[in-house]
Design goal:
By secondary structure, this protein is mainly α. The chain is built from 11 helices and no strands.
Length: 224
Amino acid sequence: MNPSNLHVSLIETLSLIMVITSVAAVEIRRLKLSAIAYLCQALLMAGLLAAFGVMNPALYWWAGTALVTKAVLTPWFLFRFLRGRDDEELKPVIGLGPSVIVACLLMLGFFHLTHEQGTLLAPTETARLEVFRTNLAVASTVFALGLYAVLTRRDAFKTVVGVCLLENAVHLSLVSLAPELPETAVFGVATEVVVTVYLLLYVIGGVRQEFGTTDTFQLRELRR
């Protein structure tokens, strides 16, 4: 492994912008704009994988696959699902103002904790390098924001977006912890959730036709 060949400033910039796109994807109330925010993050993720490719050429293949699955297929599924439906997100559990505050607190808290204690979470030589500590901090932050979306959004569409954020966080952690291993690219490609996203949206579309809503809280009541 030769980290000196990495474009450190480029990687850190792309990584940090992923946090911004995560907050946008979670907090924007217009679903199409939320999907666009995810699309931007998917492009950033593909760029990050390609940037790490100087350490492991197999990552170029993963970057190409991610470009297709994350930045083409998944957004296409999201936009197709939104075709012909109201673009406004169903009212979430937490209002916009408090939700933005919570998201910012999660962002700052998880970023600081992981960046400062990265070697405890991943006691490896790689994790001690600044670029990888930053990436791990970003990954934990994106994961926290994705989980926050899954747990607090009533609109099933936003739940799917949260799942997509969780996937990107896991993949960013993976490439940050073991960028030099050929198996990293194989595992990354194998864990793409594009099929899961398609199936989730297909089921949600069927539920919407049957019950006239994608409100996950209301559907829980109907189940009872």
